[in-house]
């Protein structure tokens, strides 16, 4: 039997240690980073903090989505975009068993005469490239069984953005937008608020948010938008709700869908939205809605 010199054994030991270190860096560290990222950063129940009560009929496009998944239920928002379709976040409806959708109301509690739709998975269309791990293409459509026909002033569609804006992630940098939801009214509150909340938010410059998210080990895509939490904003309520601006003609236009945000509320932390502009071809293809050029 051939013996191995002692210095060779030391070299082999060092090689083994180096190999183990490489394995930790390559396989284990990313898992820890991702785990830390989602435990600290991701909160898909983004809540309105520091807003105000919405007036009746102020946001006629707002939908309340109550989803039931296995033994749990949760609330999301959505936006009416046609008499047949509601736009929301994919993570709100993925793997759900059944949903209730309430329209034309600013309160969660039961109201006589307010339409409630029962939705099953067959009525859903989730983006084919939706990534639930990193919240990419977090967008979905709900097809209603019955036409809304917009019989009430309290139920109307929100306008979609122009098709020509779909390739420019910086289009809305520094704009002021509006968000709505039934989330907590302050960070220590528990559960949803009964009355719809609304708040004004600042749209974060795309490059700035992309840099910030990179420090959190998250790659921001061109089809995402950020707003900055400055005291009244969505913060760690409703996912799926719309990010809305008022265009020069005075008409409200939806440009984003609440996707995720920090699980704690501190000034300077962004909330991430799915860009509606970037997904206009997908929306148009599946709904037949003709978007503006």
UniProtKB/TrEMBL annotation:
PANTHER family reported for this sequence: ACROSIN-RELATED (PTHR24252), HYALIN (PTHR24252:SF7)
Protein's UniProt name: Peptidase S1 domain-containing protein
UniProt keyword Signal present: yes
Chain segments annotated as transmembrane: 12-33
Record keywords: Disulfide bond, Hydrolase, Membrane, Protease, Secreted, Serine protease, Signal, Transmembrane, Transmembrane helix, Zymogen
Keyword Protease: yes
Subcellular location: Secreted
GO-annotated molecular function: serine-type endopeptidase activity
Organism: Rhynocoris fuscipes
Domain Peptidase S1: 48-288
Pfam families: Trypsin
GO biological process: proteolysis
GO annotation, cellular component aspect: extracellular region
Major localization listed first in the record, in broad terms: secreted
């Amino acid at each position: 039997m051939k013996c191995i010199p002692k210095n060779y054994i030391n070299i082999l030991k060092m090689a083994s240690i180096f190999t183990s270190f490489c394995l930790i860096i390559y396989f284990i560290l990313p898992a820890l980073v991702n785990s830390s990222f989602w435990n600290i950063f991701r909160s898909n129940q983004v809540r309105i903090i520091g807003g105000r009560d919405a007036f009746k009929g102020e946001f006629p496009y707002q939908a309340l989505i109550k989803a039931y998944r296995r033994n749990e239920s949760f609330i999301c928002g959505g936006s009416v975009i046609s008499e047949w379709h509601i736009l929301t976040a994919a993570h709100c409806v993925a793997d759900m068993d059944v949903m209730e959708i309430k329209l034309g109301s600013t309160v969660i509690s039961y109201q006589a005469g307010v339409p409630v739709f029962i939705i099953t998975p067959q009525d859903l269309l989730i983006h084919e490239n939706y990534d639930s791990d990193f919240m990419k293409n977090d967008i979905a459509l709900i097809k209603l069984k019955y036409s809304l026909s917009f019989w009430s002033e309290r139920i109307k569609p929100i306008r979609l953005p122009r098709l020509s804006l779909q390739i420019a992630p910086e289009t809305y940098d520094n704009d002021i937008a509006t968000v709505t939801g039934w989330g907590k009214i302050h960070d220590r509150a528990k559960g949803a608020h009964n009355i719809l909340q609304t708040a004004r938010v600042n749209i974060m410059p795309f490059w700035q948010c992309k840099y910030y998210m990179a420090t959190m080990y998250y790659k921001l895509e061109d089809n995402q938008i950020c707003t900055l939490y400055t005291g009244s904003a969505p913060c760690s309520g409703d996912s799926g709700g719309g990010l809305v601006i008022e265009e020069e003609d005075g008409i409200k236009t939806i440009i984003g869908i609440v996707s995720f945000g920090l699980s704690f509320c501190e000034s300077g932390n962004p909330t991430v939205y799915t860009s509606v502009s970037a997904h206009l071809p997908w929306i148009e293809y599946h709904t037949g809605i003709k978007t503006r050029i």
